[in-house]
Structures are given as structure tokens and as C-alpha cells.
Write a structure and sequence with these properties.
alpha+beta, 3 domains, binds flavin-adenine dinucleotide, single chain, Butyryl-Coa Dehydrogenase, subunit A, domain 1, 10 strands, Butyryl-CoA Dehydrogenase, subunit A, domain 3, Butyryl-CoA Dehydrogenase, subunit A, domain 2
Length: 386
């Protein structure tokens, strides 16, 4: 058992810290208040190759593992930024990498690696299906050498900031299926060509997340953009879930560390009743407890990442890491807010922004209830709740 990061991993952390210093709190605060996209930050990360961490070297990426990719995202959140603005590229790209054909990989991966093309959008969720993804209704109907997409999606992030979107759509009606996990297919949708037939309506949310409702009205997708086999799309999406959960866990760890550091510093400096508020156990202990929980979650995150990189089964660890890390970050967020008193609500302290941002990680990209359902059913063998 070795709990130490390698020299290379430590160096990656330092490099990301250096980049993030160029994008301080004020940068993220302004982006948040204007509901902008952090274009300069994402461009910089792409130029430096960090968003291509998981793309193999033969396609122009850096060919790193999920452990390294998770360190990159963790440090972004730890610095005060928000990695969700660019994390999807890392895990959506995995579906193309694992299940795309050679021609698709040659066509898209080098351009994604160089930053020339952005694949930051991932279209699964629908209003009438919610967490039950096998119930989605958006259809892809084959007409000669293309598919026509019709239907509606909700909560689809970064569509306006992406060139490409990975889309899950129905190719066989639900009622005709014996196995309900079949009949769905994954497509690469070139958003630049979908204009006029794809309506994108931005949603007004509690956080700045560039999230939209989508309405497809006969969007044409060339048949060559189907990934893998028709009808197997749900399987391909599931294959990416462990990577997604590990990366999201790392982001939560980054948030947790940010909250704890800010809270500990403020608690040591703020004098009330003639002494630092951190000398009161009512302030100190919640911070210390959150710290212990973030550190514990981090161990499970590295266990999951190590197993993933060794190509071992890691469903249980990846799900536990996501659950524990997002809850620990939320605990740290609350301790930090309480520590800051009224100032926790003041925009200039950044606590309220990070507080809103970290809350999302308990709900999306997957709700912790469904993570618990996975553990209860697939790990502990209890009956299904759905
Ligand atoms: C900011 C944001 C960005 C998002 N970005 C994307 C994106 O880019 N692409 C995309 O496809 N989706 C995206 N999503 C959607 C997200 O993945 C879903 O919101 C999430 O998976 C839950 O679906 P739902 O909102 O329809 O909740 P529902 O499925 O309606 O569930 C509501 C609640 O009930 C619980 N629940 C449901 N069934 C059970 C059960 N059997 N047992 C226990 N509890 C249950 C859920 O866990 C949840 O807490 C985003 C969401 C948000 C908020």
C-alpha cells in the first residue's frame, strides 16, 4: 500500500496550480455574476493540453490516467475555480475512444486534443425520463445514410460552448424491446450543422452552468456519426460512468479543501469577544470534522482511480468516492459558511458562489440517491427500487 503520489502526479498538481493563479477569485466572481463562460480559462487549459489528458498520445493527447485527470480537475476547484465548465470533455470523449471506430477517432480526437473542436456537451436527460435514462423519448430515425433526430432534452450543459455533442437517442420504440437497456444509440452531433433544426433555450439556474433545454426538429446526423452498434448506446454510456464519478469526486475534494482552508484561515483571524472565533469549539470542530471527512473521501477516490487505471472493476469504489466526496464537500461548505457569519453571504468572499456550485455535485451528473441504489443493489445484493 502506497499512499503517496508519484513525482509526475505532484508535478501535474503544481502545474495546474500555476495556471489557476492566472485566474484568481475575481475572475470567477465576474464570470459568475455575468453568467459568462470562462472562455479564457478553458482556452488556456486546452492550449496547454490539460483537457486532452485522457486522449491517447497517438491521437495528439497526453495519454494520462484517470488519477492524473482527477488531479487536474481537483486543483481547478481547489484554486477557487469550477471544473464543471470543462470536465465533460474528459469523460464524454471516453465513449468515442472506447466505442468509436478508427475513422471517427482519427477525425475527431486530434482536433479535440488540440482544442480546435470542443466536445463539452452530453445529451442524455429528458423531462419525461429523469433519472430513468432507458425511458428517453427523443428518437433517431434512419433515412438512407442519415438519422433524423426529433424530441426534447433538458439540463444539457455547454451546448452553446461546444462544437460537438454526444447524444443518446432512441432507435427502437420502448414497447418493442424485451431488454429495456437496448434500443438506444449514441451519436456525435455536429452542433454547427444542426442550426435551424435545433432550438437551444438557456435555463436560469441557481448556478452559472450554461445549461439548456434542447428541442430537436428533424436534426440530420450522418449515419457515419453513429458510435458503435445501433441499439447499444445505453451500454456505452454506462461504460463511462465510473470515470465520471471519479472525476466528480475529485472536483468535490477540491471544493472541500477550498472551504476548509478558507474557513480555518478566517476562523483564526476574525476576532469577536476579544479572541479568534476559531478558538471556540462550535466553530473549530465542524471545520476539523469536515476536514477528516474530505480526507477519508479522498482515499476512496484514489482507490477508485487506481483500480480504474489498472483496468480492474471499480464500480463500488467509484460510486462510494462520488457519494462521500460530494457529501464531505457539502459539509465543508456549510462549516465554511457558518464560520464566515454574515460575510459568508457577501459575494466578494466567494463562499456563497462555491457553496452554490458544490451543492450541485450531490445531484448531478448523478444524484446520490442513485449512487446509494447502485451500492444497495449491485454491491450489497438488495432488491431493486426501480
Ligand atoms: C446544473 C445541471 C447540469 C446538468 N447537465 C447535464 C448534462 O449536461 N447532460 C445531461 O444529460 N444531464 C444533465 N443534467 C441532468 C442531471 O443529470 C439530472 O438532473 C439528474 O440525473 C437527475 O434527474 P432529474 O433532475 O430528472 O431528477 P428525477 O429523476 O426526477 O429525480 C428527482 C429525485 O428523486 C430521486 N429518485 C428518483 N428515482 C429514485 C429511486 N428509484 N430511488 C431513490 N431516489 C430516486 C432522484 O435521485 C432525485 O433526487 C444536469 C443537471 C443540472 C442540475
Amino acid at each position: 500500500m502506497d499512499f503517496n503520489l508519484t513525482q509526475e502526479q505532484l508535478q501535474i498538481r503544481e502545474e495546474i496550480k500555476k495556471v489557476c493563479k492566472e485566474f484568481p477569485d475575481a475572475y470567477w466572481r465576474e464570470i459568475d455574476s455575468k453568467k459568462d463562460y470562462p472562455e479564457a480559462f478553458v482556452r488556456k487549459l486546452s492550449e496547454l493540453g490539460w483537457l486532452a489528458a485522457l486522449i491517447p498520445e497517438e491521437y495528439g493527447g497526453t495519454g494520462l490516467g484517470i488519477t492524473e485527470a482527477s488531479i487536474i480537475l481537483e486543483e481547478i476547484n481547489h484554486s477557487g475555480g469550477v471544473a464543471t465548465v470543462c470536465h465533460a470533455q474528459m469523460y464524454t470523449m471516453g465513449t468515442l475512444l472506447r466505442h468509436g471506430n478508427d475513422e471517427q477517432k482519427r477525425r475527431y480526437l486530434p482536433k479535440i486534443a488540440s482544442g480546435e473542436l470542443r466536445l463539452q456537451a452530453f445529451g442524455v436527460t429528458e423531462p419525461n425520463a429523469g433519472s430513468e435514462s432507458t425511458r428517453i423519448q427523443t428518437t433517431a430515425t434512419r433515412k438512407g445514410n442519415r438519422y433524423l433526430i426529433n424530441g426534447q432534452k433538458i439540463f444539457i450543459s455547454r451546448v452553446l460552448q461546444s462544437d460537438l455533442m454526444l447524444l443518446l437517442a432512441r432507435t427502437t420504440p420502448y414497447d418493442e424491446l424485451k431488454d429495456k437497456t437496448k434500443g438506444l444509440s449514441v451519436f456525435i452531433v455536429d452542433l454547427r450543422e444542426a442550426k435551424g433544426k435545433l432550438e437551444v433555450k438557456p435555463l436560469d439556474l441557481m448556478i452559472n452552468h450554461h445549461t439548456n433545454s434542447l428541442f430537436f426538429d428533424g436534426v440530420e446526423v450522418p449515419a457515419e456519426n453513429l458510435i458503435g452498434e445501433e441499439g447499444m448506446g445505453f451500454r456505452y454510456i454506462i461504460d463511462g460512468w465510473n470515470a465520471e464519478r471519479i472525476l466528480v469526486a475529485a472536483e468535490a475534494i477540491g471544493d472541500g479543501r477550498w472551504f476548509i482552508e478558507r474557513a480555518a484561515k478566517y476562523a483564526s483571524e476574525r476576532i469577536v469577544f476579544g479572541r479568534p472565533i476559531g478558538s471556540n469549539q462550535g466553530i473549530q470542530f465542524p471545520i476539523a470534522k469536515a476536514y477528516a471527512n474530505v480526507e477519508a473521501a479522498d482515499l476512496v477516490r484514489y482507490q477508485a482511480a487506481t483500480k480504474f487505471d489498472r483496468k480492474e472493476k471499480c464500480g463500488a469504489e467509484a460510486n462510494m468516492a462520488k457519494l462521500l466526496a460530494s457529501e464531505a464537500a457539502w459539509e465543508a461548505a456549510n462549516a465554511c459558511l457558518t464560520t464566515h457569519g454574515g460575510y459568508g453571504f457577501a459575494v466578494e468572499y466567494d463562499v456563497e458562489r462555491k457553496f452554490r456550485e458544490t451543492r450541485l455535485l450531490t445531484v448531478a451528473p448523478v444524484s446520490n440517491n442513485l449512487v446509494l441504489a447502485y451500492l444497495g443493489q449491485h454491491v450489497l445484493g438488495m432488491p431493486k427500487s426501480y
